[in-house]
Amino acid sequence: MRIESDSDTVTASRNHLVFAYYVTGHGFGHATRVVEVVRHLINAGHDVHVVTGAPDYVFTSAVQSPRLFIRKVLLDCGAVQADALTVDRLASLEKYKETAVVPRESILATETEWLHSINADLVVSDVVPVACRAAADAGIRSVCVTNFSWDFIYAEYVMAAGIHHRSIVWQIAEDYSHCEFLIRLPGYCPMPAFRDVIDVPLVVRRLHKSRKEVREQLGIGEDVKLVIFNFGGQPAGWKLQEHYLPSGWLCLVCGASQDQELPPNFIKLAKDVYTPDIMTACDCMLGKIGYGTVSEALAYKLPFIFVRRDYFNEESFLRNMLEYYQGGVEMIRRDLLTGHWAPYLEHATTLRPCYDGSINGGEVAARILQDTAAGKNYVSDQQLSGPRRLRDAIVLGYQLQRAPGRDISIPEWYINAQSELGLRTSVGLKAGTALIQSSSTEEFEILHGDVQGLPDTMTFLKSLANLNAGHDSGKSVDVLQVRERKAAAKLFNWEEEIFMTRAPGRLDVMGGIADYSGSLVLQMPIREACHVAIQITHPSKQRLWKHALARQEAKGQGPTPVLQIVSYGSELSNRSPTFDMDLSDFMDGEKPISYAAAREYFAKDSSQKWAAYIAGTILVLMTELGVRFENGISMLVSSAVPEGKGVSSSASVEVASMSAIAAAHGIKISPRDLALLCQKVENHIVGAPCGVMDQMTSSCGEANKLLVMLCQPAEVLGLVDIPGHIRFWGIDSGIRHSVGGADYGSVRIGTFMGRKMIKTIAASMLPQSSNGDLHQSDLEDDGIELFEAESSLDYLCNLSPHRYEAVYAKMIPESVTGDAFLEKYADHCDSVTVIDPKQSYGVQAPARHPIYENFRVHTFKALLTSIVSDEQLSALGELLYQCHYSYSACGLGSDATDRLVQLVQEMHHAKKDKPEDGTLFGAKITGGGSGGTVCVLGRNSLKSSQQIIEIQKRYERATGYLPFVFEGSSPGAGKFGYLKIRRRTTKLNG
């Protein structure tokens, strides 16, 4: 139900009412909209007790009345910000736990007593969860007023923090369910916890002064362009410089610290400045999106230049509304920090925001609250019916379970079902044929290569054809389209050739983290893959985005090569969907910049850090092969390999990207060499200390075969056919994995520490050693040659298990601190990790793992070709189990992956009673560990597939998460090659 009103005031009720109004602790936006509702309630003659952590002046500057009571209590923390543009997801959950979960019983008791003490008639929450439960305990009705709820916001954070935090989300939703109904503000998120909804107009603060009055007080004439810089009081550490603004512009800065020095064309505003009046005096606003900034920008028709925030889920819904009413333009964070503001300011002045809806939501909400407190029952004519509640619940479910970065066919209503604007865009695509006909009857001709019958490749071609059709139609790009596809439609010149490559993710069957210790590894390329389309264009003909063109024009050097990237799936991962840079940024004079400089370059903007995996391939080619890029490069990246699942999403992106760049420039690189180059991208530019097996499998693998590689450093020994009676699955645990995480890195450091200790021990046992622990006869018995080899051990995996147990096992400590190791050994001899002197590292288990893992892999490989029997499958499965528990000993296990392995074991051992039912034989954690995917081995049969489904269901019942299953295989990038396509000029017949 939507309620609007043309009246100016709330009619005073006959009864004097008391409202307890709880305000969340996240930012001033909540407090400022609460002020507007509170003002109307007090004008109607009621008392309002505001429970808040916000400064008093936020309320008292707008409402000066003895009926306003402020109680300084913080009952939720909102989202903890690492900086002005980045939310710290784990810290947010931990802070909420500390603030609202641990003291929950005490909070409920205190609030219940307080509500009774003030004789509250109604509890209002924006949008503090525990307030609703406290009201229920006190026997008082409660209402929420908001555009989002914390269960939806925190759902994203749970994916980063682990499912053990999921109870926080459920508790918040349960608290909200005690609320009688929700007064819902425009730009809202899915909120399935509420039983009923009443929609109201925008809640905005009223204006006190006109544009002319404000400018006169500031001493600024109408001939000066004004931009208000509004980042919520966070930008004190930012260095603003005079050249950031074009001539004729001034910037009014909100939230600057007292000691912050500003250039002459930047003006510091008072801490308690009344922002709406300032906004109406300005020509545009530069800031981050929040309800307060968006609603007031729309209400007062102020163009809004916004910079994307990381990990705050409210943003996308407000952004939809802002762009729908033609009131916003996104600024790339790098341009914000480097001062490339001019093109955005100029663009903003051409916008004509067209919001013409009511802006009296504060007055309308106050009337509803007054009537409710007086006893009226509001019954919406658009209640959250079963289908509606199910729809929003499924949206929340996607938020909890989705695989970030995966370009999947989400139900059509999901994309923007959360918006009141009814935005609907389908991203589901169907497979096509080698010649794909677009909606405008145009088609692509394949000039080189073969789609090889791969459905995902045909789907990607179809998506290109759809982009082509949208571009050729001559229609303006609809703001309701998915942003990344909007950007992609402008990326290519459809008259020119486009190159396309494909690289799959990989399932780590055996070998895992032993790769950097020189182990044999067995890896299977999976069905899911990354596709890259690329076009090379002379700088004078490249279709540049407006801000890139303006940046180039500002340099005054004429057209220069620019790299432009669009990444599909960004909207599912809180990433910016586009990235661009001048290729000259990769040069330092006549030489390429260092890898360290590149790593720093990409780290400046976390929303675009993903581009390091793609653009980094260019710098590696420049540095390692001496390639120079003189033409512009436009790339479209679409990856179906889920991120954080331990199936090498990063390697697939790197391999597909470098393959595309090489193909488009006529650079011949063998699949093996290409994998080694891609490893350099990840190690030195991204900064993740991975081995090479991921890139090697993505590049050199073949469908339905295991790549056999000896990682010394990367010798491909061949391919092993997966026997027809054996099948491998990957089951996602739902726990995000990252090789850039501290656990993986510390285990790798511990492994290299162990190797250094073994080498030192072996050297001490040689005759020339001053150590007299062993006699010459002992050395002859053990073999001087062995100690000589082990004293110069290049790879830990070259030490056999029996030698390790016989000589070294008892001498390797369980753990050692970094400073103690460095004092005795000086260095661990690993170029991609750095020892922290203050950290304690496990050594014994990390050193032992690769020695035994190498033996297990050799044994596994031999067993694959042995006689088909249950004994063969049981032995293969046992090797998987052993590997799994060795990971756990290193500290790379997780409760979730342990649960999946246990479920497989239950299926496995059930065959003791019914041998014919036993089809699953083993499972292990994969890749870098600490979550991610479990590899399962079983008989290739229908029964096995049924058991995998049963494991999915059991896991979901236990954890609330339905795991994704990887099954099937596909060719590596080397086997796929590349496609060269061009739009056909003829039509298909019929």
Quick overview:
This protein is of the alpha/beta class and 990 residues long. It has 33 helices and 32 strands. It is 39% helix and 17% strand.
Question: Which secondary structure elements does this structure contain, and how are they paired or packed?
Answer:
Layout: E1 18-23, H1 27-43, E2 47-52, H2 57-60, E3 68-72, E4 81-83, E5 86-87, H3 89-101, H4 104-117, E6 122-126, H5 129-138, E7 142-146, H6 150-161, H7 166-176, E8 181-184, E9 197-199, H8 211-218, E10 225-230, E11 249-253, E12 266-268, H9 275-281, E13 284-287, H10 291-299, E14 304-307, H11 314-324, E15 328-331, H12 333-338, H13 342-348, H14 361-373, H15 386-401, E16 443-448, H16 455-472, H17 483-489, E17 498-510, E18 520-537, H18 546-555, E19 562-567, E20 578-582, E21 587-588, E22 591-592, H19 595-603, H20 612-625, E23 632-639, H21 649-664, H22 671-686, H23 693-700, E24 705-710, E25 715-721, E26 726-732, H24 742-764, H25 776-782, H26 784-791, H27 801-808, E27 815-817, H28 818-825, E28 840-842, H29 844-864, H30 870-890, H31 895-909, E29 920-925, E30 933-939, H32 942-959, E31 965-967, H33 973-976, E32 979-984
Helix pairs in contact: 1-14, 3-6, 4-5, 5-7, 6-7, 6-15, 8-9, 16-17, 19-20, 20-21, 20-22, 21-22, 21-23, 22-23, 24-26, 24-29, 29-30, 31-32
